[in-house]
Amino acid sequence: MKHLDINQIKEIIPHRHPFLLIDYIEDYEPGQYAVGYKCVSYREEFFAGHFPQEPVMPGVLTVEALAQVGAVAILSMEENRGKIAYFGGINKCKFKGKIVPGDKVRLETKIIKQKGPVGVGEAIASVDGKTVVSAELTFMIG
């Protein structure tokens, strides 16, 4: 298994605080897949407004975290180093549960298609083994 800490992740993808939404990569294979984690703290800035009485991580940020994990898989390929992976589309997205402070979110994105600079990833976010978000993410390398 190949691990990446936060500094190694920052060498691959351009995201920075407060928009870097993954804490570490547990395993990855360039061009194939990546598995990462987000450790959700009550101190996350978005909880101040989403929602003050019942803090829930916004679904769009979960999808973004999945995309960032997919970007690690794609941008760790030698030919893509230093490039950016942009969103090209989100399909088949389903929200099946909430992410709340204290959750350790497992983020897995498998690259299922790639032709030239465009590709598709199959992404699943889970907490304690239960899927909370699933989606098919299209990306473009720029």
UniProtKB/TrEMBL annotation:
EC number of this enzyme: 4.2.1.59
Predominant place of localization: cytoplasm
Compartment list: Cytoplasm
Source taxon at top rank: Bacteria
InterPro entries (UniProt xref): FabA_FabZ, FabZ, HotDog_dom_sf
GO molecular function: (3R)-hydroxyacyl-[acyl-carrier-protein] dehydratase activity
Family classification: Belongs to the thioester dehydratase family. FabZ subfamily.
Protein name: 3-hydroxyacyl-[acyl-carrier-protein] dehydratase
Species of the source: Merdimonas faecis
Lineage: Bacteria, Bacillati, Bacillota, Clostridia, Lachnospirales
